[in-house]
Structures are given as C-alpha cells and as structure tokens.
Amino acid sequence: MTAFTLPDIAQQSAGLAGTLSWVGMEGIALPIQLEGSHVNARVSAGVSLEAADARGIHMSRLYIALDELAHQPLTPILIHRVLTVFLESHQTLSENAYLTFSGDVLLKRDALISPLSGWKSYPFTLRGQLNSRGFRLELDVSVGYSSTCPCSAALARQLIQQAFVEDFDDIPLSKQAVLTWLGSEEGILATPHSQRSTANCSIRLAGNDHIPLAALIERIERALGTALQTAVKRIDEQAFALANGQNLMFCEDAAKRLDAAIRKMPDISAFQLKVVHAESLHAHDAVARSEWQW
Questions:
Q1: 153, 249 contact by CB (below 8 A)
Q2: What is the Cα–Cα distance from 211 to 166, expressed in whole angstroms?
C-alpha cells in the first residue's frame, strides 16, 4: 500500500493576505476546579493570526493544551502556563493568546436565623490574555440581592403617620390601643417597594496565588447586606424583612458601598462594577456604574 502524507491545508497560502485579532474555538466543555468547587465550564480558546499569508491556525493544538486545566485547581499560574503553550505552538503565526472560562459556581449559604441552608448559584467569567506586554487576568461575577427604595419607604411612613392621626383623633391613646393598631391592616396600610437586584463586578487580578471568586462574592454580599436567600423558615423571612427595612438603598447607594469595599480588596489592580435595580415601580431598571484603576 502506498503511504501518503496527510495534507496540512492550514499551512498553505490562502491567496488572501491579512491578519486577524482572534481565531479559535468557543463553547468548549471543560470540567474545572475553582476555589474548591467543581464547575462544568464553557471555555473559549484562541490566538491572534499575525502571519498575513497563513491560511489559519492550529486549533487542535489549543484544544489539546486545555487538558492540563482539567486535572488540578485553576490558578493564575496555571492559566499563564497554558497561554504560553498556545503561543509556543504558534510561534510563527501568533502574538496574542486568549482563554475565557464561564460557568456557575455553587456555594452553600446558611439561613439568617434558623439552622437551614441551601446552595446558591453565582455566574462568573474568567478572562486571560498573554502577549509581549505581559499576562492579564480578569474575573467577572454576578451577585443577586434585594434593594428597598428609600423614597418609597419615606412615603409609606408618611401615610402611616396620617392614618395614625386620623384613627386616634377621637380614641384615647394607650399602649394597648397603639399595639393593636400597629398589628392591623388599617395601621400598616402602606409598605415600601423592594426589588430583586444584581451586582455585576469585574476585577483585574494582580496576584498569582489563587482566583478569589469566593472572597469577592463574600465582600459584595457583606457590603450590600441583603443577599438573596436559599432555604428559609418564617423566622428567617422576618429577619430578611428587618434587614431590608434597616438597609434602604438607591442604586447609587449600592454602587458606592461596593466601590468602597472592592477598593480595599488585596491583589487587584483595577475593577469595574454595575448595579441593576429591576424596578418594581417602573417598567425600566435603575442602574449605577463605577470603575477604578491602580
């Protein structure tokens, strides 16, 4: 039998000269370990194409290099190493290498008062880039929380005050009468509106030890104070109502809290944040943004 050399069409000239900023694959399924959690991630892997006469890149080399990521905890050093392999396998073709991971990390969350707990999902994206200027790694995460409108709360309090004056105009004031009134629907006739809200934060990592996904989520939830809950009993729901009532915030307030909290986070060189309050009063969202670079 005659032996044939398999053709390598990618090495042949395309007849069209030109460079491309990104060529690769998206939606690659890959199991990764991140902060102690196993994540079914979707990965994008690519390189630039600077060789103007080249037909294409070697996608299989990128795909094979990803296998190293599936057998050990994901760290900045490991991502840097794989990106280096991308460039070494495309020495005459590429000057930039890219990796993006996306998925959901599951964290166990305790109820506010009761011994219950449940799992909560946090969507994240991790973007790495390597070129002659160096290595860059950015982490995005979305965190849900509850926000209660300060304006709505003030208007509700005013209505309650007016109702109190009207109802007790001809009634002798006593502790028991006031307690009974406060516990009735006639007494608390108005409540402030709350909405499910989202904090979207992106940080640029400056350290090489680990990827601080859980630490970032903890910092965001502590700064906002009204994280969405998992399993609850009535005592937890009451505690959540109390937290919302004592934690009134516009989207501007939420963004300022996060700005102050994330600035103090170690091993980051920049961040961007966006908070979205999905209004229950309006048919549009209230949004605030902030960013910082060291």
A1: no
A2: 59
Using alpha carbons, select from 225, 280, 230, 286 the residue that is nearest to residue 258: 225
What is the rounded distance in angstroms from the CA atom of residue 78 to the CA atom of residue 14? 35
Structure tokens at 228: 């969405």
Tens-digit pLDDT profile for residues 126-179 = 999 999 999 999 999 999 999 999 999 999 999 999 999 988 887 788 999 889
CB neighbour list of residue 282: distance below 8 Å, 6 or more residues apart: none
CA–CA dist 99, 129 (Å, integer): 7
Distance CA 43, CA 172 (A): 70
Cα 214 from Cα 49, distance rounded (Å): 36
